[in-house]
């Protein structure tokens, strides 16, 4: 469901989501409504979220690749997927879902907040997760990166990544940019 960007913080209850989003919004507003640049992120502004963060790059060939992951994300996947493409990591069932979400965040651009249940190999019950994904620009101002925070509501089930994810909340916040 599309919602106004001005209501984004009202949706977020987790401290890491709020801190990362407040920092992103401050950069967005300070940049006259331009998508913030990757190099402007200040991790000290969202230090509590660092274990849960991830950054994805859009390569020139159109593939998505992990740029950076916090320790909880590394634990979730069972190894550090830094530098790997989505095709290297996600199951055939998950790949189109994750790719569509990331493409929309970058191409629209938009912020997405999701609550979901992830089914894994290592746990009989789904793992509840909450995630926020925010667009970021490269040094030339092109939206080519995603900055996200994913919080796993349980510690078990980690180690193999998701087999599939069932969305419960899928809220989109279109980003009005100075260019649009």
How do you describe this structure in short?
With 180 residues, the protein is an alpha+beta fold. 24% of the residues lie in helices and 30% in strands.
Q: How much is the radius of gyration in Å?
A: 15 Å
Question: Which stretches are poorly predicted, pLDDT < 50 over at least 5 residues?
Answer: none
Range of helix content: 10-25%
| Fraction of residues in β-strands | 25-35%
Mean pLDDT: 89
Give the termini separation: 21 Å
Looking at the structure, what is the overall shape?
A: globular
Largest beta sheet: strand ordering? 2-1-5-4-3-6
Count the E strands: 6
Number of helices: 5
**Helix-strand category:** alpha+beta
Described by strand count, sense and barrel closure, the largest sheet is:
6 strands, antiparallel
Description of the structure:
- This protein is α+β, with helices and mostly antiparallel strands and 180 residues long.
- 24% of the residues lie in helices and 30% in strands.
- The chain contains 5 helices and 6 strands, in the order ααββαααββββ.
- Strands 2-1-5-4-3-6 form a 6-stranded antiparallel β-sheet, sandwiched between helices.
- The model has no long low-confidence stretch (mean pLDDT 89).
């Amino acid at each position: 469901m599309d919602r106004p960007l001005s209501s984004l913080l009202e949706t977020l209850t987790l401290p890491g989501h709020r801190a990362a989003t407040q920092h992103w919004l401050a950069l967005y507003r300070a940049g006259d409504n331009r998508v913030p640049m990757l190099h402007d992120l200040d991790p000290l502004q969202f230090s509590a979220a660092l274990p849960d963060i991830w950054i994805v790059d859009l390569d020139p060939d159109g593939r998505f690749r992990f740029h950076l992951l916090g320790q909880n994300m590394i634990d979730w996947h069972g190894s550090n997927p830094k530098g790997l493409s989505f095709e290297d990591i996600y199951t055939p069932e998950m790949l189109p879902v994750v790719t569509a979400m990331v493409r929309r965040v970058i191409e629209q651009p938009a912020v997405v907040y999701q609550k979901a249940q992830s089914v894994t190999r290592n746990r009989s019950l789904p793992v509840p997760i909450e995630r926020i994904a925010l667009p970021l620009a490269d040094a030339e101002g092109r939206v080519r990166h995603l900055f996200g925070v994913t919080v796993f509501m349980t510690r078990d089930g980690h180690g193999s990544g998701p087999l599939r994810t069932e969305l419960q909340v899928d809220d989109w916040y279109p980003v009005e940019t100075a260019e649009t």
